[in-house]
Specification:
The complex is a heterodimer of chains A (about 220) and B (about 525). Chain A is of the alpha/beta class. Chain A is built from 9 helices and 5 strands; from the N terminus they run H-H-H-H-E-H-E-H-E-H-E-H-E-H. In chain A, strands 2-1-3-4-5 form a 5-stranded parallel sheet, with helices on both faces. In chain A, helix 1 runs antiparallel to helix 2, helix 1 packs across helix 3 and helix 5 packs across helix 9. The longest helix of chain A is centred in the middle third of the chain and has 24 residues, at about 65-85. In chain B, strand 15 and strand 16 form a beta hairpin. An 8-stranded parallel sheet of chain B has the order 14-12-10-9-8-5-18-17. In chain B, strands 7-6-20-19 form a 4-stranded mixed sheet. Chain B has a 3-stranded mixed sheet with strand order 2-1-11. By secondary structure, chain B is α/β, with parallel strands linked by helices.
Chain lengths: ~220, ~525
C-alpha cells in the first residue's frame, strides 16, 4: 500500500474517531474517486476505526455518547459506500435482525447496537420496538439472518424474550440468537436457549461478528 | 403503626432470676450472640425533640422552586404528553386539553394542571389490613415511612449469602420480615420466577396480600393483569365496599419517559379510581438516556410527567389520591447502565422531592435506599446511607427501595434489616431539638462544681435511655467484638433476620375462604393471560 493511500485511510480513520460525520463522508467519497476499493475503505478505515472505538470503550476511555457519535460518523461514511458496494456485489459480513421484544418500547440500547453492528460491517434489519415473536419469525424467513438479536429493558418483558426464542427454535430457525438489555445476563441467555449474551454494544458487535465468522479477535 | 414504647429507666430487680440463670450457664452465654430485638428501636436521641419543623437541605431556594414550577407547567402546555389510550384522550379533550391531529399528543393548559394539583389530596392514608398498620402521609411526626424494593428478580439468601432467582416462597419471607421491620410502612411485590411469567405480578401480589398485615403496593406487568390484581385486593379486603372504604393497596403508574404514557398505565389510573386506590405517579427518567443529561432538566421533565399523571387522575378519577414518585436514574456513560445511587441521581432525587413538596404540596415518594452494587458490600452501605440522609433531609414522605441492590433488580433480606436501621437513624436526626431549659441542662450547668461531671445527675438519669439504640450496628470494643466471634454489621443483620423469621414466621392473614377464592383468581389469570 502506498504511503499516500495509507495517509488518506488514516484521515478517514481519524475523522471517525473525531466524530466528524460530514468529513468522514467527504473523505470516503474522495477515496472512492482515487479508485480505492470499497472493501478496502470499509475494512481498513471504517471498521478499523470502530474496532478502536470498541476497544477504547471497553477500557473505559470512551463514553457511550462518544461511541454513538463515532458510530454516526462511521455510518455517514458507510452511506457513501453502500450503493457502490451493492453495485459491486460485495456482500456484507453477515445479516443481523434486531428488535426490542413484545411489550417493551425501549430502543436506546437497541439502536446503539444496530448502529455499531453496521459499523462492524454487518447488514442490520431493525424491526423496531414492541416486536411480537411472529414478526421476528417473518423477518427470519424474509431475510435469512445469520443472527437475530433480541433486546429488553424491563424485567417484565423477559418472558417475551423467552417466548420469542422458543418460537424461533420451534419452527427450526437454525441461525444464532443473541440477547441483551439491562435485566439480561449470561445465565438467563443460557436458560432460554439463546446462543449468546453481550453486556454492551461493542460486546454485541464482537459476538455477532464471531457468529458470522468475521471475528477479528 | 405505633412506635414501640420506650422502656422506662429501671434500676432494680426485674429479670434478676433470668440474670442468675444466665450466670449459672455463664460459659455458654459468654460466647453466644444474643439476637437484638427485631428492628431498631426508634428512640431518637432527642426525646426532648418537638416534631416541629423538619430540618432540611436544599439546592432550591424559593425563587428556583418558582422558576422550575413555572417551567414544568409550561412544558405540559407547550410540548404536552403523548397518551396512548383513545378513551382517556377523549376525556382530556373534553377537559379543555387540545389534542394534536395524531390523536395522541395532548397539550395540557396551565389552568388544567393547576386545577388538578389544587384538587389532589394533600394527605393520603395507605391502609393496612387493620388500622394499626395504617400509614399516613405525610407522617404525623414530620418524618417519613419506608417501603420495600419492587421488581427485583434476583434474591440474596439471608442464611447463605448466595444469589439466586427470586421465587414465590421468598415473597412470604419478605412479607414476614418487612411486616416486622418497624420503619417499613408498606410492602411491594417483587418479580417471581417460578410461576408463569406473564402473570408473575398476579402470583406475587396474591401471596403478598395473603401474608401481610401492612399495606401492599401493586406493580402491574400488563393491561389485562390490572383487573386480576384489583380483584385480589377486593378479596383480601373482604369485598368491594371494604376496599373502597379502606384501600389496602396502592398502585404504581408510570410515564413512558420522555413525556409519554402507555395504555397499561392509563388503564391502571382508570381502574384504581373505581376503588379509590391511591396511585404512585411515577416518573423514571434516566439522565443522558431518556432525559436530559443535566440533572435539572431531568428533574424538570420528571416533575412535568408527574403533573401530567396528576391531571390524568383528576380527569379520569376525580379525588384519586396521588403520591408524587420521582425515581431518578442516570446513565453510566462508561457502560450504558442505569444507576440509581450515583451522586447525580441522588442530587436529582433530592431536587425532585423538594420541587414536588414545596412547589406543588403533594405527598412525595422517592428512593431513600438502594445501591448500584450487586452485593451487600461496603459500597452498598455507604450509598444507601448517603441516599437516606439526603432524601430524608429533602422532605420526602416515603423512602423507597428497602433491601434493593444492583439498581433495584435484586432483593436482600439482610440488607432490608440494615436499611430499617439506617431509616430509623435518619428519622431520629430529622427531629429538631427543642432549645429550652431542659435540653440545655441549664440548671445543671449553673450548678456545676469544679471537676464535676454529669453522669449522676437527675437530668442525665431522666434522659439516659433516649439515645438511639441500634439493633445491627456494632459498638463493641475489639476485645468484646473478637470474643463474640467478630459479629459485624452483616452478621448481626443476618441474626436479626433470623430472629424475626423465627418469631414471626410467614403465616396467612386472610381467611381460608378468601385464600381459596384468591387462588381461583390467580388460576383464572393464568388461564387467560399466561397461555
Amino acid at each position: 500500500m502506498s504511503e499516500d493511500l495509507e495517509a488518506r485511510l488514516d484521515a478517514i480513520y481519524g475523522a471517525v474517531l473525531a466524530y466528524e460525520a460530514g468529513n468522514t463522508a467527504e473523505l470516503v467519497r474522495r477515496e472512492t474517486e482515487h479508485g480505492t476499493s470499497c472493501q478496502q475503505i470499509l475494512s481498513d478505515a471504517l471498521i478499523a476505526a470502530m474496532d478502536e472505538v470498541g476497544d477504547q470503550f471497553a477500557s473505559g476511555r470512551l463514553f457511550v455518547p462518544e461511541m454513538l457519535m463515532a458510530a454516526k460518523a462511521m455510518k455517514a461514511g458507510l452511506e457513501v459506500l453502500r450503493p457502490l458496494l451493492s453495485a459491486s456485489d460485495a456482500k456484507p459480513a453477515g445479516t443481523v435482525v434486531i428488535g426490542t421484544v413484545h411489550k417493551d418500547l425501549h430502543d436506546i440500547g437497541k439502536n446503539l447496537v444496530g448502529m455499531m453492528m453496521e459499523g462492524g460491517g454487518l447488514k442490520v434489519v431493525d424491526l423496531g420496538v414492541d416486536v411480537p415473536p411472529d414478526r421476528f419469525l417473518a423477518a427470519a424467513r424474509e431475510h435469512h439472518p445469520d443472527v437475530i438479536g433480541l433486546s429488553a429493558l424491563l424485567t417484565t418483558t423477559l418472558p417475551s424474550m423467552r417466548k420469542t426464542v422458543e418460537i424461533l427454535r420451534g419452527v427450526g430457525y437454525n441461525g444464532r440468537i443473541m440477547v441483551g438489555g439491562a435485566p439480561v445476563n449470561q445465565a438467563f441467555a443460557q436458560a432460554i436457549g439463546a446462543d449468546g449474551f453481550a453486556a454492551d454494544a461493542p460486546g454485541a458487535v464482537k459476538l455477532a461478528r464471531q457468529f458470522v465468522g468475521a471475528a477479528d479477535g | 403503626m405505633p412506635e414501640p414504647p420506650r422502656e422506662p429507666p429501671r434500676a432494680e430487680g426485674a429479670g434478676r432470676r433470668q440474670r442468675l440463670a444466665r450466670r449459672d450457664g455463664a460459659t455458654a452465654a459468654a460466647v453466644e450472640h444474643t439476637p437484638p430485638p427485631p428492628g431498631a428501636r426508634l428512640a431518637p436521641g432527642m426525646d426532648f425533640a418537638a416534631p416541629v419543623r423538619r430540618p432540611g437541605f436544599t439546592y432550591l431556594d424559593d425563587e428556583r422552586i418558582a422558576e422550575l414550577r413555572r417551567r414544568a407547567v409550561t412544558l405540559l402546555e407547550r410540548h404536552g404528553v403523548a397518551v396512548n389510550h383513545p378513551a382517556a384522550v377523549a376525556k382530556l379533550r373534553a377537559a379543555s386539553c387540545p389534542v394534536d391531529a395524531d390523536g395522541r399528543r395532548v397539550r395540557i393548559p396551565g389552568a388544567v394542571t393547576e386545577e388538578a394539583v389544587r384538587a389532589a389530596p394533600r394527605a393520603v392514608t395507605l391502609c393496612g389490613k387493620d388500622e394499626r398498620h395504617d400509614v399516613r402521609l405525610p407522617r404525623a411526626d414530620g418524618t417519613f415511612w419506608m417501603r420495600t424494593g419492587t421488581g427485583a428478580h434476583g434474591y440474596i439468601e439471608p442464611d447463605t449469602g448466595k444469589y439466586r432467582k427470586l421465587v414465590l416462597e421468598d415473597v412470604r419471607t419478605i412479607a414476614a420480615l418487612a411486616g416486622a421491620l418497624p420503619e417499613v410502612g408498606f410492602i411491594a411485590h417483587p418479580f417471581v420466577n417460578d410461576v408463569p411469567e406473564a402473570t408473575a405480578d398476579v402470583h406475587g401480589l396474591g401471596t403478598l396480600l395473603a401474608h401481610s398485615m401492612k399495606h401492599n403496593w401493586i406493580q402491574p406487568y400488563g393491561t389485562e393483569n390490572i383487573g386480576y390484581l384489583l380483584r385480589l385486593a377486593v378479596l383480601a379486603a373482604g369485598g368491594e365496599a371494604q376496599l373502597r372504604a379502606r384501600p389496602i393497596v396502592s398502585c404504581i403508574v408510570c410515564s413512558f419517559t420522555p413525556l409519554e404514557f402507555k395504555a397499561m398505565d392509563v388503564e391502571a389510573v382508570i381502574q384504581c379510581a373505581r376503588y379509590g386506590v391511591p396511585i404512585h405517579a411515577c416518573s423514571l427518567p434516566t439522565a443522558g438516556g431518556t432525559a436530559p443529561v443535566t440533572m435539572p432538566g431531568t428533574v424538570l421533565m420528571a416533575v412535568a410527567e408527574i403533573l401530567a399523571m396528576t391531571v390524568l387522575a383528576h380527569v379520569l378519577g376525580p379525588g384519586t389520591p396521588v403520591i408524587a414518585t420521582p425515581l431518578i436514574f442516570c446513565l453510566d456513560m462508561r457502560s450504558g447502565r442505569s444507576l440509581q445511587s450515583s451522586v447525580e441521581a441522588l442530587a436529582g432525587a433530592s431536587m425532585a422531592a423538594q420541587l414536588m413538596k414545596r412547589g406543588f404540596g403533594l405527598p412525595t415518594h422517592t428512593y431513600g435506599a438502594g445501591s448500584d452494587t450487586p452485593d451487600t458490600d461496603g459500597q452498598s452501605q455507604a450509598e444507601r446511607a448517603l441516599i437516606a440522609f439526603l432524601v430524608a433531609l429533602s422532605g420526602a414522605d416515603v423512602l423507597g427501595g428497602v433491601g434493593q441492590l444492583e439498581c433495584a433488580t435484586v432483593f436482600s433480606p439482610v440488607q432490608a434489616a440494615i436499611d430499617n436501621e439506617i431509616g430509623a437513624m435518619a428519622r431520629s436526626y430529622l427531629r429538631t431539638p427543642a432549645i429550652d431549659e431542659d435540653s440545655l441542662a441549664w440548671d445543671d450547668l449553673l450548678a456545676l462544681d469544679a471537676g464535676g461531671n454529669f453522669l449522676a445527675t437527675e437530668h442525665t438519669l431522666r434522659h439516659c435511655r433516649a439515645g438511639f439504640a441500634p439493633a445491627v450496628f456494632t459498638r463493641q470494643a475489639r476485645d468484646a467484638y473478637e470474643a463474640a466471634g467478630k459479629r459485624d454489621l452483616l452478621a448481626k443483620a443476618r441474626d436479626t433476620v433470623d430472629a424475626i423469621l423465627r418469631e414471626h414466621p410467614p403465616r396467612p392473614v386472610v381467611d381460608a375462604e378468601a385464600q381459596a377464592e384468591m387462588r381461583r383468581v390467580i388460576a383464572a389469570a393464568d388461564a387467560k393471560i399466561a397461555q
